[in-house]
Specification:
The structure holds 2 protein chains of 2 kinds. Chain A is an alpha/beta fold. Chain A is built from 5 helices and 5 strands; from the N terminus they run E-H-H-E-E-E-E-H-H-H. Helix content of chain A is 42%, strand content 19%. The longest helix of chain A is centred in the first third of the chain and has 14 residues, at 20-33. The two termini of chain A are 19 Å apart. Chain B is elongated, with a radius of gyration of 26 Å. Chain B has 20 helices and 8 strands. Classes of the chains: A alpha/beta, B alpha/beta.
Chain lengths: 151, 526
């Protein structure tokens, strides 16, 4: 297990999901497998609760399901690309890039700083384009690590 | 341009920061500086006070309550859902720049005309954070502009009372017949004299009202109770606009005295301004620290209320009473004069203060005529009392941009009020801009009154407007007189308002109107 917010195991470059619920579930399963989420259903309930407050899709084909949850062990990003697109309630159509952000409940501010930096990168077209063009999971991890952590 | 922003979202880990980044990028691209406070899960790093002080405008991109809103009071403000900052950062920056350039709180409303659901709320006024009450007063504006903003504040709080009370009264006329008013308050109606069931709205017996006039009578009475509050609300909130919460007590008391002594809305207008001035004056007195705590709650309201109350009771009310008597005698002396001239005078008087002492003299003269069998005077008084609200409603439709959004709302109710001979429907307009509105209303009402007398129109009813047309002699000419008066008043008010040198108080009421956007100022922190 690593301290990095994303690993190649948390990347799905060909997500096959009909709706935001199953898309989130697919990604959450990866979190469970990596030991970053302790209980799948509890975590999904937290994500769904956030999603119901206000859809997390934003313009440019981005969906950002996320939650602070007691079932999360460390701040984590899981990333998926979807050719067909998954509706996340954005005004301009389905999301092709999906970021599942998992934050531990009551996480310390250092963790939050990393997630905040990640969120800030999301609005940059260059970041999105690099992720959309990444040839493999390793490349995705490199892009995120470089852009978010400056490493 | 220097901007500050606060972003926040429910979870505080994603959108808060995306919005911040988006706004920072957009501001940079547009050549502005921006400092963003991200109120997220990582805790907020508050924007330093000096940065806020130096900022030209504030953006709240927030889906949850912004913490510490009071720090931003007095700034031009644009608010939007957090996602809009992410999806349309440059637009929000542009709106903030507009709001800052517009300067005055009224003008800051302009961006409301922009697409999407964002609302731009002017925050430039002094606001009462705790009470959530709002005023539209810009402290740095010229005296004339501020005066108008004070009046508009009072008017904007008064309008719902006019609309609710007026429409209730109109409904009671339509439902129970206009005689419900006579059944409740007594008087002559269609040759029948009713004894009053109640003498005033301060105390009444509900079962007696229901017995005499039914539920329509009760509705009428409720409408009258709402009307009773018109002048106190007007003067209370004029004083509030001037002097904040401490103005409310002397303002309301002055308004109640104006009502009780028959000084009408002009008396209330003066009372409100006096009350605000008195509070501001008392606040200037430096007091020992020991007294500072009780100043706003006890001392200032006490002194200002006593002062304003005495002034209103002695200096305003007594001359009003004397003038009322003098005018009544004078009118009775004119009874033999040319009928059209008498109609002209009565008409002008009806519109002078729209329910105030001069109006009352003319109306009472009409009632006296009705009691003694002269039904022409009553008809002249009625048409003159109907034209002002109708004329203003018409003017609102014909020249929207000359009226504020609040006034246009009043305009919609004014049709029904005018048709029902509820002259009070014109008060919001007259109180907001007396020097232009009152002469215009007088001209039209004078014309209507003179025509009605010249035509020999008669009325067997003391009130009811269009709903008593069955009791009107020569009903077609009655309508002609009303229509003529409406046209005269509407043309006058449009011309006078168009001649205004500058568009002072609400320049953007007009622009926002272009896209049907309404923008009411909302209290920061409400």
């Amino acid at each position: 297990m690593t301290n990095s917010i994303i690993t190649p195991e948390l990347v799905d470059l060909d997500l096959d999901a009909a709706d935001r619920r199953s898309a989130t579930r697919e990604l959450a399963l990866r979190l469970v497998k990596q030991g970053r989420v302790t209980e799948l259903d509890g975590f999904l309930a937290d994500v769904r609760q956030r999603e119901e407050q206000m859809p997390t899709g934003i313009e440019g084909g981005i969906g950002i399901p996320h939650a602070r949850s007691a079932f999360v062990t460390q701040p984590t990003l899981a990333f998926a690309r979807s050719e067909a697109g998954v509706d996340f309630g954005a005004p301009d159509g389905p999301a092709h890039l999906i970021f599942l952000i998992a934050a531990p409940d009551g996480g310390d501010s250092e963790h939050m700083t990393i997630l905040a930096a990640l969120a800030r990168r999301l609005v940059h077209a260059s970041f999105r384009e690099a992720l959309a063009a990444a040839p493999d999971a390793k490349a995705v991890v490199d892009v995120v690590t470089k852009e978010v952590l400056g490493q | 341009m220097k901007l500050v922003a606060v972003t926040s979202c429910p979870t505080g880990i994603a959108h808060t920061y995306m919005a911040a980044e988006s706004l920072e990028q957009a501001a940079k691209a547009a050549g502005h500086t921006i400092t963003v406070e991200t109120q997220g899960a990582g805790g907020a790093d508050p924007v330093p006070a000096d940065v806020i002080a130096a900022a030209d405008a504030v953006i709240f991109a927030a889906d949850v309550e912004v913490r510490g809103r009071e720090r931003f009071i007095g700034k031009a403000l644009v608010t939007a859902p957090v996602k809009r900052a992410i999806n349309a950062g440059p637009e929000l920056i542009e709106e903030a720049v507009h709001a800052a350039e517009a300067g005055s709180p009224e003008a800051a409303a302009t961006p409301a005309a922009a697409p999407h659901s964002a609302t731009a709320r002017p925050a430039g006024a002094h606001r009462d954070v705790l009470a959530g009450l709002t005023t539209k007063v810009d402290k740095d504006a010229h005296f004339g502009t501020r005066l108008r903003q004070w009046l508009m504040t009072g008017v904007s709080y008064m309008i719902p009372f006019v609309a609710a009370g007026g429409i209730l009264i109109a409904i009671s006329f339509i439902w129970g017949g206009p005689q419900v008013a006579s059944k409740v308050f007594g008087g002559t109606f269609h040759g029948h004299t009713y004894h009053p069931v109640i003498t005033g709205i301060e105390s009444f017996d509900v079962s007696a009202v229901l017995h005499a006039a039914g539920y329509a009578g009760l509705l009428f009475l409720i409408g009258k109770v709402a009307f009773f509050m018109l002048v106190p609300v007007l003067s209370g909130f004029i004083a509030y606009a001037m002097a904040d919460r401490m103005g409310l007590v002397p303002g309301f008391v002055a308004g109640l005295i104006a009502t009780a002594t028959g000084a009408g809305f002009l008396g209330g207008l003066i009372g409100g301004l006096l009350a605000g001035t008195a509070v501001l004056a008392v606040k200037r007195v430096r007091v020992p620290r020991a007294f500072a705590g009780i100043m706003p709650v006890v001392v200032i309201p006490l002194l200002s209320t006593a002062f304003v109350g005495v002034i209103m009771a002695v200096v305003v009310a007594r001359p009003v009473a004397a003038a009322t008597t003098a005018m009544t005698n004078w009118l009775h002396g004119l009874s033999g004069a040319n009928a059209a001239v008498l109609g002209l005078l009565l008409g002008a008087m009806m519109a002078f203060d729209l329910g105030g002492p001069v109006n009352k003299v003319a109306y009472t003269f009409g009632l006296a005529g009705l009691a003694s069998g002269n039904t022409k005077v009553m008809a002249a008084v009625m048409v003159a009392g109907m034209t002002p609200p109708i004329a203003l409603a018409l003017a609102c439709v014909v020249r929207k941009r000359l009226f504020t959004p609040a006034e246009r709302t009043a305009g919609e109710a004014a049709w029904l009020l005018g048709l029902s001979f509820i002259t009070e429907g014109a008060i919001p307009f007259a109180a907001a801009d007396p020097l232009r509105v009152i002469p215009s209303m007088m001209a039209g009402s004078a014309a209507a009154g003179a025509l009605s007398m010249a035509f020999g129109v008669t009325s067997l009813a003391p009130h009811g407007g269009i709903w008593v047309i069955g009791l009107i002699g020569r009903p077609l000419l009655y309508l002609v007189a009303i229509a003529a008066g409406v046209v005269v008043s509407a043309v006058c008010v449009i011309v006078l308002k168009s001649l205004r040198r500058t568009e002072p108080a609400e320049p953007t009421g007009t622009r926002a109107d272009a896209t049907n956007a309404t923008s009411e100022p909302v209290a920061v922190g409400a």
